[in-house]
Design goal:
alpha/beta, 6-stranded parallel beta sheet
Length: 340
């Protein structure tokens, strides 16, 4: 058994709708892994997966969990089903990858994290942007002090579509930018505010504005919407010495480093601080832009193989979940400031 696991990790992808096909493709192509199953309630989806990869298919997760040769389950179903399916996989002794968000409830997320830990199973959450080489480059700059003192961050993740009615834009879109912010800053916010609007159906918010308040007066503002005229996936990080723009849809350079800042002069005249503006070069670094999902899937398999803790482990997913839950509470209370 141990020799087989070292040689090959056999994986089932559950959910072959929006994101599942991307996961199935990567695990099928990944050396050291085998796409053993695709699970989906839709017969046409199962047929497509079988034609592409020759894998086995099943209608329900519990149809395959008794397979002793199955090592891991990857869940890419609607967020409200995550807890039930994840619990089934862990109960069956399978390693687990869950797309974001981990669950829709903090206590359920805590149960999954505790269960995986007690069972010695790998639990990983699909915060794919933490595996993006552009984000890794910015993280390195921040940790190395290249930006100076951090002042604030802001992001826009907007598009026209994909319209949803079961979850709002906070839970559907904002987890990406929340996870990036927590990763870059290496800490949790002290409080959040969130406001939004239900423009289309009056049920779920199509647009949200989330503000996270971090220690040392660092702010992070997230604008997320599926009701916007253009596709934008951009984050700006402003420091005392340099500023960085990360544009995920840019074809030429996903990261631009601006040698710009405002510096306080040494003397104070009549109680007023004097400032000098500095504007230098713009650097577009050359990055090895491998597909982040490929990196993420390979990391999951390697963590199963070695027992290492994933970058986006269950605790990571739980931190994002706690911010989402606080944001939802603020949203329901007219944007009140909610402490974490």
């Amino acid at each position: 058994m141990q020799q087989r696991e070292i040689a090959l990790i056999r994986i089932a992808v559950v959910g072959y709708g929006y994101w599942g096909p991307n996961l199935a493709r990567n695990f099928h192509q990944l050396q050291g892994a085998e796409l053993a199953y695709v699970v989906d309630q839709n017969a046409d989806a199962r047929a497509r997966a079988h034609r592409l990869y020759g894998c086995k298919t099943a209608e329900r997760l519990d149809d395959i969990l008794t397979d002793p040769l199955l090592d891991a389950v990857v869940i890419a179903t609607p967020a409200r089903t995550h807890y039930t399916l994840a619990r089934m996989a862990l109960d069956a002794g399978k390693h687990l990858f869950v797309e974001k968000p981990l669950t829709m409830d903090v206590s359920e997320g805590e149960q999954l994290v505790a269960h995986a830990h007690q069972s010695g199973l790998t639990l990983m959450v699909g915060h794919v942007f933490e595996y993006n080489p552009a984000v890794a480059y910015i993280k390195q700059m921040i940790d190395g002090g290249d930006l100076g003192d951090l002042f604030y961050l802001y992001s826009r993740r907007v598009n026209l579509g994909r319209l949803q009615s079961d979850v709002n834009a906070l839970w559907s879109i904002a987890p990406h930018d929340i996870s990036i912010a927590l990763h870059l800053l290496g800490q949790m916010p002290e409080a959040v505010r969130c406001q939004g609007a239900s423009c289309l159906n009056g049920i779920v918010e199509d647009v949200v504005f989330l503000t996270m308040f971090f220690p040392n007066n660092v702010l992070c503002h997230v604008h997320a919407s599926w009701l916007d005229p253009s596709k934008t996936r951009e984050m700006t990080v402003v420091g005392s010495q340099k500023m960085v723009v990360y544009d995920d849809v840019s074809a030429e350079g996903k990261v631009r480093v601006y040698d710009k800042g405002a510096f306080r002069k040494g003397d104070v005249t009549y109680g007023d601080f004097q400032y000098k503006l500095h504007s230098g070069d713009i650097l577009i670094p050359r990055l090895d832009m491998r597909e982040p999902l490929q990196i993420e899937c390979a990391h999951f398999v390697e963590c199963i193989r070695t027992g290492n803790t994933p970058l986006t482990d269950g605790e990571n997913g739980l931190r994002v979940l706690k911010v989402l839950a606080a944001g939802e509470r603020s949203l329901r209370n007219d944007g009140e400031k909610v402490p974490l």
